Amino acid sequence: MVGIHAAGSDAARLAFFALHTLQHRGQEAAGIATTKDGAAHVHKGLGLVASVFNEDNLATLPGDLAIGHTRYSTTGGSGLRNAQPQLIETIDGPLGLAHNGNLVNAHLLRRELLERGVGLQTSSDTEVMVHLLTGASGDWMERIQTLMERVEGAYALTILTRDAVYGVRDRWGLRPLVIGAVDGGHVLASETCVFSTIGAEFVREVEPGEVVRLSDSGLSARQGVSAKNRALCTFEQIYFSRPDSICDGSLVHSTRQRLGRELAKEAPVDADLVVSVPDSGTPHAVGFAQQTGLPYTEGLIKNRYVGRTFIEPTQQLRAARVAMKFNPLAENVADKRVVMVDDSIVRGTTSGPLVRMLRNAGALEVHLRVACPAIVSPCYMGVDMASKDELIAAHRSVEEICDHIGADSLAFLSIEAMMRALGSDNGYCNACFTGVYPFESMRFVQLSLNPKEEFSSVWSD
Predict the structure, then answer these.
(1) Is there a contact between 134 and 90 (Cβ–Cβ < 8 Å)?
(2) Is the per-residue pLDDT at 375 higher than 70?
(3) Out of 85, 190, 299, 383, which could bridge 275 as a Cys pair, Cβ 3.0 to 4.6 Å?
(4) Is 367 in contact with 271 (CB distance < 8 Å)?
(5) For the whole model, what pTM was predicted?
């Protein structure tokens, strides 16, 4: 997700390059909205950023204000109707909104809007927020503050009006949002890796509960709602963020190496070499090898033209892509006892086939080490693991998982070691590992249905 104000620049083109840099965060759809002289322009499509945009349609997006989004669906299906940004015309001019996260009370707010006679065209919680903004009173800053009082859950937002771009972060800071400075203005983005791509410089993070405004008047900020105990999603450090991004003051690549070193301390193994599950498992594996003194080598080659299997929208697609995604390097692993290091195991779709690949390539033993704790609880805050039935560790012991995937041994990093690697005893949401959620009340979550299925009886994307 990005938001841009760049006076005298082509904001849509900057947004395109920024979204291309953030492609790893979502592969289902992409969109950019701009405003110029009070008029709004938008282009959205299904697929990757480079296939959705070209010179012709970027030329239809004039202006120095823009927001953009790459979609990874949680609430709402993956069809075009739910692609972002959502854009409507209001009495006060155009309003566009892009959202990273998940509202746990979206179904209640949605029902409230329908009972008021508001017509909804999507199954996304993003549209719910758009209509809550239009129905509030005051200027846009006041409306945004009213919205923040109403919604529960995880959200980082970029909001487009005719004369400004706003950035909004939930009161727990569950989802990331950072600010950069670029010639002629400022940039909002989900990750700092965007900034080097478009020639921007990192300024700071948007604080939990904060609203920032980018306009011709410069950068301004206001506390929209009171901040709660900070709870940044740990999965940002483990998996989501690009290794070259700065997260919580540390280079993500370095943090992942520390996770690997902690894993090696807790779960060493008598083996000949270390391999990774590329690409997200590679820094963890390097750290593991550094700590143990075992040689690190490539054991699996990744097809770079196949996307991230974790964020495929269906289990069937995830399983099919594993076989397309990896090939073993038989010469490197034949007659060797191999430690295979991965960043996480969520559904177990990938691990079993990869263990079999290495065995078929001649590995004598395959020991799996996982650089985060076992994921045992659903996420309601914007990571697509909202059904406990999908989580392999929710119903199996470590020994049962090891037997299921066919490894010689299996070990997960402990929560204590993970927090040592992150360099913090708090400030993170570990609900998927512990079942302890950051919200004071879970009544919204307990009432929630599976977000991806909630409106399936109404909409078929």
Answers:
(1) yes
(2) yes
(3) 299
(4) yes
(5) 0.90
